[in-house]
Design a protein that fits this description.
62% helix, mainly alpha, globular
């Protein structure tokens, strides 16, 4: 009985660390619902219709972080990647690639090793870090997790 309880606790902690797209999008949806910012103002700032916001919040498909970063900014929040020792506040999707490269280098992990650990091809990591590709939500969450960091959304 004690072994199964310990195992259950481990699984819960592991699931918390490995945030998925739906959990991330639910956090954003909750922030909007608790905010005093009107949907029309968010849409105006992002240049989208409400349906685009609802698709982001639903999280049913993978999408580029550029859209999500614009949404987080419109809600007057910021993306934070942290691990207890280091914390990085990120304003836009292009900056996200640079921060992930910095974290990878601090951990002395090569681009090829990171690609192997994440299951992505080497060129994906190179394109993200060199700002030739905007990272998708799923890719960002996987890389952050493999690097031993967590994602938070904080009020500016």
């Amino acid at each position: 009985m004690c072994i199964s309880n310990a195992l259950l606790i481990f699984v819960v902690v592991l699931n918390y660390k490995n945030m998925n797209r739906q959990e991330f999008c639910q956090i954003i949806a909750d922030i909007r619902k608790q905010s005093t910012i009107k949907m029309k103002d968010v849409c105006f700032q992002m240049g989208v219709m409400p349906t685009a916001i609802y698709r982001l919040e639903k999280g049913s498909s993978n999408f580029e972080m550029g859209n999500m970063m614009s949404y987080i900014k419109a809600l007057q929040h910021i993306l934070v990647i942290e691990n207890g020792q280091h914390s990085y506040r990120i304003n836009d999707a292009q900056e996200l690639g640079s921060i992930l490269a910095l974290i990878r280098k601090e951990k002395a992990i090569s681009q090829r090793a990171l690609a192997e650990k994440t299951g992505f091809v080497y060129s994906t990591i190179v394109k993200i870090e060199s700002k030739k590709s905007i990272i998708s939500i799923d890719t960002m969450l996987k890389i952050v997790d493999v690097l031993g960091y967590t994602v938070k959304i904080e009020k500016k």
